[in-house]
Each structure stands twice: as structure tokens, then as C-alpha cells.
Amino acid sequence: GAGGAGSEPPPPSAPSFNGSLGFSFGPFEHDSDEHRCFLVESNAAAPYLRALRVEASELGAVHHMMLFTLPQATDRGAAEALDAIDEPSGWVCATGTGISGAELASVWTPGAPVTAFPDGTGVLLPSGPLVVQLHLGTPEDREGATVRVNLDLVPTVDRPLSLYPVAATGFALPPGLPATTWTETVPFAAPDMSIYGVLPHMHTRGLSLSLLGPDGCLVNAPRWDYGQQELALYDT
Q1: pTM, whole model, 2 decimals?
Q2: CA-CA distance, 25 to 134, in Å (whole number)?
Q3: What is the pLDDT of residue 40?
Q4: What is the pLDDT of residue 12?
């Protein structure tokens, strides 16, 4: 039935999930809140990513997860060189992966037990290694934590998907203000496309978020909730 004024919407039902490939990380020994990338081997028989699920043993251990493919033959060497810079495994990657050829394949954010693409679609995972980027929480949030990334793969899809990141890279919070607004224009040199959905992402200081595209509003989140982030699919 309909809720009363001010009532919370019901939580979205979790999509079906059939995990066929998984990677585990942690415990983590780094000193601060950071983005860290890990090189993993996929060796997946089914080439299309339909959905993914991230499981963390401690709430707040991971602020987001991004999965990247390495389609070029030289990408593996670049990733291995970055991985060898420091110990333990992985490397610091504040923006992207540090590898020019890496391509974004999927994103997970808190509030979405499963990130699932529309039925009949999926993202192609070329043969070879993948890169998992984890935005790790503070040492207090992730003490002793482990994280597992599970992939749901299918052999074929009716329509392949690709992800198109749009980021306000100049975003800044001036100190000492009770509130502030940031507006930024970013390039949108995409080819003609059908957009199935959007996955807005922001952290706990944010109150509202919108994205205006060339043909109108793509995202409008007037009451931002960090704990309810999800891939939002358009009706049409």
C-alpha cells in the first residue's frame, strides 16, 4: 500500500545472482583512507559480465569498488610494474588505475547488494587480467576486514553494454563553510547511444546531486543518501 507522508520507500528487491567467478582481498595493512588497485586473473569461460556482488566482513570497510578490463597486450606489464612498487599487494590509485589502456567494466557502491545490468545485456570482459579498485575505509572501519568480489558471467548477450564515466574532477570543499554548492561542466564527447541507466556516486557530506546532459536531466537526487546508492535503470 501507499505510505504516509515522509515514509521511507521500501528497499529494492535484490536481482537474481549466479556468481561464477570471485576474488578475495584483505586484511588490509595500509595506514589511511585510500584507493588501492589489485591485479587479478580472470580466466573466465563466459565473457560477458551480467552482475556483480561485493561482500565486506566489516561495515564501512569499502566505500566503492570499480572493475576494469585490460584489453591491450601491454597493459599487463604496466599493472605488474605498479604492483611491484610497494608491499603488500596492490598499488595506490587515487584516480582510475594508473594504466592508460584500462577500461571501466562495472561499479559497486554501498546500498546495492547486487549491481545487475538489464536482462539480455552485459559488459564484455576480454580474456586476460582484470583490475579491481577498492576505495578502502579508514583503518578503524576496516580493521581485520576482508572483501570478496563475485562476478556473474554469461556466454552471450543480446546487446553488449559499455560504461561511460562522468566525473567532476575539480570538485573541492572550501574549509570553514556550513554548506556549499559545486557546479562543473565536463566533456561529453560520446557517440550516439541508448542509455539504460545511471549510477550516481557521492560520499557522506553530500546533500543533493544532479547531472544535466545535452538532451535533459540524466540524474536528479535531491535527497542524497550515501547508504542507498544503486544502479538506477530508466523506465524507457
Answers
A1: 0.83
A2: 9
A3: 94
A4: 54
Grid coordinates representing 183 are 557546479
Residue pointed to by grid coordinates 582481498: 25
Residues constituting the chain: 236
- HEC-encoded secondary structure of the chain: CCCCCCCCCCCCCCCCCCCCEEEEECCCCCCCCEEEEEEEECCCCCCEEEEEEEEECCCCCEEEEEEEECCCCCHHHHHHHHHCCCCCCCEECCCCCCCCCCEEEEEECCCCCEEECCCCEEEECCCCEEEEEEEECCHHHHCCCCEEEEEEEECCCCEEECCCCCCCCCCCCCCCCCCCCCCCCCCCCCCCCCCCEECCCCCCCCCCEEEEECCEEEEEECCCCHHHCCCEECCC
Provide the 10 A C-beta neighbour count for residue 106.
25
Contact at 8 Å (CB) between 37 and 90? yes
Q: Is the previous residue joined to 12 through a cis bond, with omega within 30 degrees of 0?
A: no
pLDDT at residue 10, rounded to an integer: 55
Identify the segments of the chain with pLDDT beneath 50: 1-5
Return the pLDDT at 188: 76
pLDDT of 180:
93
Contact call for residues 37 and 97 (beta carbons, < 8 A): yes
Contact 114, 15 (CB under 8 A): yes
